[in-house]
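Thread title: Can someone regenerate the structure for this chain?

I was given the following input by a collaborator and told the matching structure tokens would be attached. They weren't. Posting the sequence so someone can regenerate them.
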Amino acid sequence: MAQQGHSEACCTVPPAVVGDYKPKGQYIDLDGMQVYTTGPSSATSAIFIIYDIFGFSTQALQGADILAYADQNHQYLVFMPDFFYGKPIAPGTFPPDTEEKKKRLSEFFAGPASPPDTAKKVPELVKKLGEKYTGVKKWGSLGMCWGGKIVSLTSQSGTSFTASAEVHPAMVDPKDAKGFKVPVCILASGDENPEDVEKFKKNLSVDNHVETFGDQVHGWMAARADLKNERVKSEYERGYGVLLDFYHKHL
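Best answer:
Regenerated them for you:
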């Protein structure tokens, strides 16, 4: 498994903003669901992001904007639906070190964050967005943490996507890898079980890029990114550069 990788897109990814970030996109209403939308309307490829259980974090929104606009020669429309309808898990739930927190987390994963139930919603959302943005010809997906599991479930036979990606994925199951029908990029943190990540890669029969950012925590490209830390900021930027290279190749 690759531990380091040069990224051509790293040369174009802008420095991450530390502190107050002002998103470049807007929120649209899709049958009662808010969807963060960013990128040029003229783009012919789109990226469908499934955020982590903390919802619309500024770090995730900034990541969406980077994917949309970083490379002036290859920009994307990027969509991030609010699967939790404004009610993500409370940050104070972590770490789940009390019985109350454990119960709250368990109920959240059994309810609003149920992976199978969420995965069932994805094809229809992509279809509706495609009907609204008719210039889009190819769709990619990106799952962050919890969203990574949804990407695994929606990259199987009959997928809506041409390419898929997961960053610091949660619930890594090597069995899911066997059913992938499209190229996939997996960027793991040092917190994921390395054996599961390695087994996942071995089970893939599609083109793939699997890389571990060993000194980064689970969530470093989304809600848990401490962008005031220079090392985290650097690897956050590099991670999005690797994603852009992957999408440029397949979308």
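Residues 1-11 have pLDDT under 50 and may be disordered.
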